[in-house]
Amino acid sequence: MKNIFSGLRKPGGSSSRKGPDQQFGTGLWRHNRDRFIRAVDRYYTTSVAIHKLPADGQDPSADANTIIDGTRRLNDLVPIVDEVTAWLHTNHPVSGQVVPGHTRNAVGDTPELLTKASSKVAEAVLAASMARTEIIADRPIGPSAKATERFISEAAQLLERAQAATEGGQES
Fold first, then answer.
1. What are the pLDDT digits (tens) for 27-49?
2. Among 65, 79, 42, which residue's Cα sits nearest to residue 146?
3. HSE toward the beta carbon, residue 120, CA cutoff 13 A
């Protein structure tokens, strides 16, 4: 069986030689990043479980492939989360879980965008889990597959907004 997950980077893998504490801090920015990475990892685990389910000698359905393809889409979002959180830590370090007022003025709604993006990935995990259950029960998974696709797209849009906010606020 061909490994459809080949070529994926390990979530959180970074090309930087800095350690994660230096690159992302230990406060809120690191928390946002780690939460996103955990959600991506859960999605990957669920997607692998779907891929391993017996297909009664048939090729996986297009809907199952939609869910499995979500791992690649999420994998492509990890560098964006890394970039945004590293920028936040470099330019506006926060050691705790509260954003000070002066930092809030500078970063706007970027913390919420990161949190919402992680939540959307968690919702995609739930939809993929439902699809797995539906496959086991021999029911159609189309609605769950479409939900995973929608949640991943929404997460990508939120991260694009967060990235645009940090690019707009880059200090020279």
1. 889 999 999 999 999 999 999 99
2. 65
3. 21
pTM: 0.83
Closest CA to 41 of 84, 69, 12: 12
Q: Which two tokens stand for residue 26?
A: 């230990």
Tokens of residue 111, six digits:
């913390």
Task: Quick: pLDDT tens for 84-104.
Answer: 999 999 999 888 887 878 888
Token pair in block for residue 84: 């945004």
- Both tokens of residue 160? 């694009």
CA distance 163 to 157: 10
CB atoms < 10 A from the CB of 77, how many?
20
